[in-house]
Design goal:
Layout: H1 2-39, E1 41-42, E2 45-46, H2 47-55, E3 56-61, E4 68-69, E5 75-88, H3 106-113, H4 121-128, E6 135-137, H5 147-155, E7 161-170, H6 178-181, E8 183-186, E9 193-197, H7 198-202, H8 204-208, E10 212-217, E11 230-232, E12 239-242, H9 246-263, E13 265-274, E14 280-286, H10 304-307, H11 317-327, E15 335-337, E16 340-343, E17 346-349, E18 358-360, H12 361-366, H13 370-380, H14 382-391, H15 415-421, H16 431-438, E19 447-448, E20 453-457, E21 464-467, E22 472-474, H17 479-494, E23 511-518, E24 534-542, E25 549-558, H18 562-568, H19 571-584, E26 587-588, E27 591-592, E28 598-600, H20 609-618, E29 622-626, E30 632-636, E31 642-644, E32 648-653, H21 667-677, E33 681-685, E34 688-692, E35 706-711
Parallel strand pairs: 4-12, 29-32, 33-35
Antiparallel strand pairs: 1-2, 3-10, 4-5, 5-6, 5-7, 8-9, 10-11, 12-20, 13-14, 13-25, 15-18, 16-17, 19-22, 20-21, 23-24, 24-25, 26-27, 28-31, 30-32, 34-35
Helix pairs in contact: 3-4, 9-19, 11-13, 11-17
Amino acid sequence: MAKRKIKIKKNKLGAVLLTCVLGLLFFSLVLRYGYVMLSGHSSGEDLIMRANQKYLSQLDQSAERGKIYDRNGKILAEDVDRFRLVAVIDKRASEDSKEPRHVVDVKKTAKQLAKVIDKSEKDIEKRLKTKKAFQVEFGKAGQNLTYHDKEKIENMKLPGITLYPEVQRFYPNGNFASHLIGMAQKDPDTGELKGALGVEKIFDSYLSGEKGHASYTRDIWGYIIPNSKNEVAPKRGDDVHLTIDSNIQVFVEEALDKMVERYEPKDLFAVVMDAKTGEILAYSQRPTFNPETGEDFGKKWANDLYQNLYEPGSTFKTYGLAAAIQEGVFKPNEKYESGYRDIQGSRIYDWNKEGWGKIPMSLGFTYSSNTLMMKLQDLVGADKMQSWYEKFGFGKSTGSMFDGEQSGNIAWENELMQKTSAFGQSTTVTPAQMLQAQSAFFNKGEMVRPYFVESVMNPVSEDTYYKGKREVAGKPITNETAKKVLDELDKVVNSKNSHATSFRVDGYRVGGKTGTAQVADPENGGYVKGANPYFSSFIGHAPSKNPRVVVYAGMSLAQKRDQEAYELSVSKAFVPIMKNTLQYLNVGGDEIKDKVTINKVPDVTGKTVEKAQQTLEEQSLIPVVIGQGNKVVSQSPTSSTRLLTHSHVLLLTNGDLTMPDMTGWTRDDIIAFESLTGITVKVKGSGFVHSQSQVAQSPIDKKTAITVELKSKEES
């Protein structure tokens, strides 16, 4: 009996303890929930915000990236709508649908798509028969489709075929001032276009604009709550207008292509600058890349104009000459002993080793004598000569906006470096520094800073954020000295003793200076060895007495015809660039004429073909109709572009494509045709279209092989 009482007492005690524990737990839960309800926080999180986020939907809206233009308003880079082809092949996509949502007839679909995309009917059919896939794509052939392609495919009314819109950065000219314009690529994380090189990178913050966003609140069933939408529109990116002229740029690109074909140099560049203002009218280099296709991107990252350091060779002698004239120690008719000099145990020769005996200083400069420049340095004084080079801007950057611009170095550590610097070895420069220094001779002793951006502005707000202008970078010499230097540079090309006759240009008098330098070997030290291991260059201006244009071209380490490259230097690039540029600018002799008439291209998209033709002809432009349609769906160049009178404007119609008569077309016109139609044209030769493989007005499509042969006007 006693045992039973003890057991009952123990059970009562357990029940009391359990009740207390449960009571404490309940009390703590009440406190916890009370705290959460009053504060709205749990574990450091704002629960109200978390709840709002659950029912709040947000959608980012990308901003249109700004365009890049040339000086005449021609588009060099812009955003375009492109389309990606997708085929849904799983039958389940059509469940509970009255209309089929997947590819029903594989053979018919393949046959129709093969008419538009660059893929065979057999390959398309094979892709459409892929097993265990909901949908398929068609690789490169199904990407980057134009609006014209999209319309064609949609008109086929093929079940299961979808076209997804994508924004792509479009470079209508391909290999065209690529290291200056640069390239924008999609960020793999965000999918947004970001500048990777050149102007696209330098002005990325301006070009990118500002993203917009739309947000709205949904209820627990997913429906949008009325009046809950909040929208901020994206801000379009700013446009960058460059100083380059597309017509002159074409002259440069064609000349460099010919140089690569003939000599296969390791490096090559050419730049055209307005001698009076410092505007860069054209620039390109080799190797280059195609920003539209990505071909050869990364072969060389550096922009030679601003980022490449090299020893310039004898073109550098002009600045030592200017210093000697300014100091009064250069006496044109006074004779000196040419041949060689012994400096710190090294014998330094003139380029012909034996020299020319005792000759006048002026003739020594015409002959590009190394011993003359060392003598002039002695007469000026080594320390003074260094300060003269500094006055001409060497050893410091030009202050351009180009990222990573190099400063170069005036090598003055010992007498040997000082003497070799006198003829452009040891000291390093950039082409931009050379152009800036050279400009002092064209502007009464004032140097003008080279620049490549005309303006940065927003076409919507009409705000201008930057305006390029002529800037004086210093005045190292007097007007009188500048005139005397120009006289000596004229003799280099035009005197009876000239060794630079290959740089003469028919119809124009050119002045300038040649340069041949050994190329530094960064891997092994010292200089590159070989039969002709040289950097050859020429910096020339025209007309000689009153310069309008300066062209600087340089080539390193020719791999083919190296002896010819040594003898002719870069004349095969310089001469056509200079001649074509002067003719284009209507520069005659030493007189500067007004530029030829340039007209603004009207917008004729959406108009009938007849009306579009009439509108263009009224502006003295030549309409070229492509296709059998009656309405213009696209044009090139686009509206607001400025063109020379009697230039072609290509009009793409809403009908099937037809082959235009390309006779007399420029390479620029061919590029415009390729961008409008998506058809690649194989080009042979240079100049103007002389013949074409396809008959005019014959039907064409993306699979049509088109070859055109170009010839100069004289050859035609």
